[in-house]
Structures are given as C-alpha cells and as structure tokens.
Amino acid sequence: MSVSATDQQKNLSPPKIHPLLRFILVRIGISILLIWGVTVVTFLMTNLVPTDPVAAILGDRAAADPEIVAQTRDRLGLDQPLIVQYITYLGNLLHGDLGVSNQTRVPVLESIGQVFPASIELGIGAILLSVIIGLLLGLLSALKQNTIVDHAIRTLSLIGISAPTFWIAAVGYFVFFFKLRVVGGAGRLDPWLTPPPRVTGLYTVDSLLAGQMATFTNALGHLILPSCVLALFTIGLLTRFSRSSVLDIIKLDYVTAARAKGLAPRTVVFKYIFRGALVPVITVVGLAFGSLLSGAVLTETVFAWNGLGQYAYRGATTLDLPVIMGVGLVIGIVYIIVNFVVDLIYGFVDPRVRVR
C-alpha cells in the first residue's frame, strides 16, 4: 500500500507542543531575561549614585588618608572599570554569592535569609485579608450600585487608599495594644518567649510544626495588627478595582442570557459575573502581593518587625552597596516570580490567553 504525500508530511512534521506547555515555556524564557535585566539595572543604579561608598565605610578620619582609601578600593574592587565590576558581580551571583555587607561583615544572602521570612509572613497575612475582604466588598458594591451600601463601601475604600500608613500603624498600635490590650506588642514574639526551631522562618508555621501552641498563639497575636494595617491600602485598591471590573461584566450579553434562563442569582453572580471579573483583578492582586513581600518599611518600623524593609533601609542609610544591590535583586526577582505565577493563573483561568 502506497503512502500519500500528505501522510508522509504529517509523519515528518515535528510533534505539536501543547498550548499550555508552550505558554509556560515562553513565560520561563521571558522571566530569565527579566532577571538578567534586573541584575544590570540594580548594578548600574547602585554604582552610579553620586556618593562615595568608601567614605561611608571608613568614616571621616580614615577617608582623609589616601593610602587607606586606595587599599579599601582595591579590596572591594572599586578601582576596576564598571564592566569588570559587573562581570565579577554576575559571576558571584551565579555561585549564589551576593557579597558581604560593608557594615556588619555578614554575607548579604545570609542576612536576607534571616529577615525575608518575616516579610513573607507579614505579606501573606496582609494579602489574605486583602483578597477576601477587598473582593467581597467590591462585588457587593457593584451589585448594590448607587445605593447607600455602595456609597459607604466606596468611602471606606477611599479612606484605606488615602490614609498614611505610618499614621494608621501608630494609631492602631496605641489603641489596640496600649489601651485595649487585644493584640501583641512590637516584634514577632513577646520578649520572654524563645522562637520556635527554624524550619521555614515563619514563626506561626514553625511553632505549629514544633507543636508549640502557646508560641503559635503569641506569634499570631503579634501578626494580626501589622497585617491589618498593611492590608488597608490593598483592600481599598482591590475593592475599587473589583467593583469596576464587576460592573463591566454585568453589562455583557452572556450575563443577561444567564439571567434570562432563570438561573439562580447566586449561580449568576459567582459562576458568570465573579469568574469573568476575576481575570483582570488577578493582575492587581499579583502586583500588591509583590509589593507586600518586598517589604513595608514604615509598618515594619512601627511594629519593630525585623523584615526585608528594615534591612533595606539600614543598607540605604549607611550606603552599604552589597546590601542595596542584594535587596534590589531580591525585590526584582520577587516581582518576576509573582508575575510568572499570575501568567500561569491566567493560562488556567482563561483558555484564550494560553491559546494566543
């Protein structure tokens, strides 16, 4: 039996890649390029700052000695051309070396590993509150459009967006800790408690893994207030954005058709309206989560929450270049990973995205 030319062409053609797999591979490639771009941007912006890091390291008296300054520049490699410094920096990154802090002489990667879990714990608590409350308020506001409920929710969301974070943190700390004593004080635990054995660095998780319920309760009590303060802005943002998105979906024909079929109102709201409005909201959730994970300096300062934000602030005020570049790189990677996850969620939620 002879084989037709069409069949031969089909047999010789390479196997087609599943649209979802192709979608994931493309996003991985883009993420790798973006990470490389982050290394370039953080290196250039840090090294082009019009100040002398050697003077910040040595102090005024030592910086007045040219010999000490020359030795310090040679030790740090600051006497080399920028391109040579960048190649050295990139080579160290490939070996997992973010450098050593000029102030504490502790490896930057080690310090970030100590403080980043605190920001993760705070960010997860804040984003969970933001998503649950913000989306529900936005949905309710859209369904009750131009009613007193709608106006009240929009006013509250505007206050959440506009109120200064440091003021809310200070007021919340004074009222709920000093006056009412319903939440924990500064820090992640009470001073007389010992942190649980480190597994993840998240005190709430590690205390549960160790079976220390008293430590878990105390850590959760310390987490509630800063998470609520940090979530207020994001709640206001998600409320307003989800309301706008839901109002756009309500006007579409397929929602009108679903109602005309006589479907239950709950089915129309959650299966048709809410699901359709969720896709653009995911972007805002991803960006907000990246922002929360990258560190909230004011909130961490008020509540003495030793996270990435405070670590970055200390590095910036002392002009500690390895710390500044390390934190900048970590923050950039956090945003890239969050955006990658958001793109994957797009692919699963909306098949049209992965087909394109």
TrEMBL record:
GO terms for molecular function: dipeptide transmembrane transporter activity. CDD domains: TM_PBP2. Keywords: Cell membrane, Membrane, Transmembrane, Transmembrane helix, Transport. It is a multi-pass membrane protein. Pfam families: BPD_transp_1 (PF00528), BPD_transp_1_N (PF19300). The chain crosses the membrane at residues 20-45, 122-143, 155-178, 219-238, 272-298, 323-349. Its main location: membrane. It is found in: Cell membrane. GO terms for cellular component: plasma membrane. The keyword Zinc does not apply. It comes from the Bacteria. Gene3D superfamilies: MetI-like. Residues 116-346 form the ABC transmembrane type-1 domain. Belongs to the binding-protein-dependent transport system permease family. This is Peptide/nickel transport system permease protein.
